[in-house]
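Changelog note: in this version the structure field was regenerated for every chain. One regenerated record is shown below for reference.
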Amino acid sequence: MLDWIIQNLGTIIVLAVLVLVVTLIIVCRIRAKKKGKTSCGCNCSECASYGVCHSKNEKNS
């Protein structure tokens, strides 16, 4: 088992770094969404995709 880990150490390190980066991206997106920030940084009311991003309840309020 130790030989397999040593032979694949580079792959394991790259995988660990990728998992860390993806996790950080997801955490940052969740925090931004909770703060009300959009991914594009623009005014949602003027966005062509407003109906796709927001539910009907948010449109009425």
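Spot check on this record: The chain has a mean pLDDT of 81. DSSP finds four helices and no strands in the chain.
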